[in-house]
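Sequence design from tokenized structure. All designs in this work follow the same two-part layout: the structure record, then the generated sequence. An example of the structure record is given first.
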């Protein structure tokens, strides 16, 4: 019985008034509706709720790169940055990963948002 309780929720529902019952199991399915809210204090309005803009900023200074995930305050709309890589050598990043940053790859934005929300 304990084994069944771990895999799904076990509910006992009475079928009639004599006390006999029907065993039913409920299987819960959780699906993602969107990206999570990122908790960070806004410098303009002091709100703590931000959402990803879907964009990644890449800035090069000679052979060093900075990469940021751009987020937007839910209350005032101010854009902020979350550092992904700071002052990393261009050759330290895989070429495919760098292209995904430059092209604002949705899968990369999702991965970075999930990491930032922890």
């Amino acid at each position: 019985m304990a084994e069944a309780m771990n895999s799904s929720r076990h509910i006992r529902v009475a079928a009639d008034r004599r006390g006999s019952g029907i065993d039913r199991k409920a299987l819960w399915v959780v699906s993602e509706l969107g990206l999570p809210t990122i908790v960070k204090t806004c410098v303009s309005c002091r709100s703590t709720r931000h959402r990803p803009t879907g964009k990644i900023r890449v800035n090069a200074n000679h052979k060093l790169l900075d990469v940021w995930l751009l987020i937007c305050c839910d209350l005032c709309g101010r854009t902020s940055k979350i550092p992904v890589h700071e002052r990393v050598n261009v050759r330290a990043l895989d070429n495919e990963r760098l292209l995904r940053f430059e092209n604002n790859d949705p899968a990369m934005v999702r991965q970075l948002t999930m990491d930032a929300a922890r």
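Residues 1-7 have pLDDT under 50 and may be disordered. We note this feature because it recurs in several other targets discussed in the main text.
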